[in-house]
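quick one, two chains, predict together pls
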Amino acid sequence: MTKKAELKKTNSYKKMGLVMLCSAAGGGVLGIVMFVILSDNMVGNIKNGTALALTGIQRIMIPVLAVIIIVSIVYGELNLRKLRGIGRRLLEAEDEECDQWEYAEEKTGAYGMVVNLLSQILCILILSVGYSIEYIADKNAGNMLAACVIFLICYAYDGFWQVRYVKVIQESHPEKQGDPSSRKFRQQWLDSCDEAEKEVIYRSAYTSYSQTSKMIPLLLVIVMLGHLFFNTGILAIVIVAVIWLVVTVSYLTSCVSLKGQKLK
Amino acid sequence: MALLNHLKKYRSELGINQTELGRLAGVSRQTISLIERGDYSPSVTLALKLAKICKVTVEDIFVYYEEDEEHDEKGRA
């Protein structure tokens, strides 16, 4: 080992140790500050405030869900219209011009997918506020049923939007294969990509894995603090821990299995 | 980047666009564009295919430069 490499390794241990020490000190200080600030009275107030906010959301659950579905449909339709227009220009464009339109297509599609996903997540969050036996038993069964119907419409629209999105992309890129309603769609799509496109997919997947690995420990700390101070229960901690385990194990399993295949 | 290429020049000599070259090589137009811009280094198989289509050797299309040589080459260009 060269002197430079050895020096680098020593610095890494030192840096890691310092980061761990700072994190522990920061956590300790935060814990003491929270313990001092969050008196029993304050914790009670925060709990009451949260309960009040949730009740408020329960009251406006139906109009909020309706607004989400309207926004989702309007944006989804405009997005697909724009994508079709880009697709038509793509088929007529040549070389460098094509690069610009393909970038525009990628960007527009990504915005559409994000809005589509956001509307699904918001619908789930809003619905889960009223998703309790306590709320339904309190003469709210009709409201809950109406909210469920709106939620299902939104969910169905978002699902069909994704199918239409794939079809629009396939119109301008006929080489892209895959039935979006099939469970093997992702594999079919990947198989129809060439080596450069696969590299983009693999690199994006690794970025996604790296971001998830950074985000999960932070989420774990948040749900643990939530349970410590507000008694939110251990379910959230268990779920985040399971997600962390699944993400890491599936990544490592895939690495080992791919290297194993190369040895055979 | 240590790999320069003259794919655009040879494609122009053939008188075909990126879509047609991509079709002949069995890859997408984007991949040809990425290679021409130097943003993607193709696999050996694809490099050989492209050389065969252009009726030249791989070394005619793809040129490996050490970093310093690359700067010199870019300076000359």
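Chain A has two domains: 41-192, 194-264.
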